[in-house]
Amino acid sequence: MIDTLEQLEALFGEVGQASIQKEQAFIHPHYRAMIEASPFAVLATSGPGGLDASPRGDTPGFVVVEDEQTLLLPDRRGNNRIDSLRNLIADPRMALLFLIPGLGETLRVNGTARISVAPELLQRFAVDGKPPKCVLVIRVETAYFQCARAIQRSRLWLDSANGLAAGLPSPGTMLADFSNAQINAEQYDRELPERQRTTLY
């Protein structure tokens, strides 16, 4: 087992110069372009209850670059577990991983976040007259793009329409098993598309 930094660094070798140069302490215009093109990000947080990585998505540019050091992320309705938000109350440190369909490179942003319910900020992010529950005001500490190897190895964008989900259990099937049949699988799956459509915002 590897249990020291010296062992780990010896295993992987020296960090490439490009990997150092790409890290910026602000949102560079190149990184701003990536954020504004991204319809999906994963939000990572840490708190007393453990770690959390949660999906966030909307139309491209749903995360707003307010300035070089500040991002705004609306937090819309979901399952009300609020695992990420609970963590941020205890520990404001967070990270975002932005994905852009068709692009191998991803963008990583690390920083801290505060949870705002300022009325003018909520209204700014309203969709169809429905504001988000809150907005994360993110203070950027570092930003850098991640090379495309993981996306290339996974063939994420190449295989996404090739039926990889065929044969996987439906949400209703999983919930029926988890709840010892207290949730009806067929009814849940039948009603899910309409429920999702009417509760996106």
UniProtKB/TrEMBL annotation:
<dbReference type="InterPro" id="IPR024029">
    <property type="entry name" value="Pyridox_Oxase_FMN-dep"/>
</dbReference>
<dbReference type="InterPro" id="IPR011576">
    <property type="entry name" value="Pyridox_Oxase_N"/>
</dbReference>
<dbReference type="Pfam" id="PF01243">
    <property type="entry name" value="PNPOx_N"/>
</dbReference>
<protein>
    <submittedName>
        <fullName>Pyridoxamine 5'-phosphate oxidase family protein</fullName>
    </submittedName>
</protein>
<dbReference type="InterPro" id="IPR012349">
    <property type="entry name" value="Split_barrel_FMN-bd"/>
</dbReference>
<feature type="domain" description="Pyridoxamine 5'-phosphate oxidase N-terminal">
    <location>
        <begin position="28"/>
        <end position="147"/>
    </location>
</feature>
